[in-house]
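Bug report

Summary: structure tokens for Transcription factor ILI3 differ between web form and batch submission.
Environment: batch mode, default settings.
Steps: 1) Submit the sequence below via batch. 2) Compare with the web form result.

Sequence submitted:
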Amino acid sequence: MSSRESRISDEEINELISKLQALLPESRRPSTSRASASKLLKETCSYIKSLRREVDDLSDRLSDLLATMDSNSPQAEIIRSLLRS
């Protein structure tokens, strides 16, 4: 496949940018209705990093909770299954 055939059209890029913008929560979207692609990508990266921190924090909290529980309790099994997911 030549590089010309594998190029993404401007229309496809605009469509992908719109889809990406729709995935961001309202509070994270760039303030202008038609934000630049670079601003949108930066905000998306920032949002993904914050989600990753939140997941890590929740995982740590679940691990700490599990350490304080009876390992044979039904609640402990639920927490272990969450940590495996």
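Above is the batch result. After comparison, the two runs are identical; trailing whitespace caused the diff. The chain has four helices and no strands. The chain has a mean pLDDT of 84.
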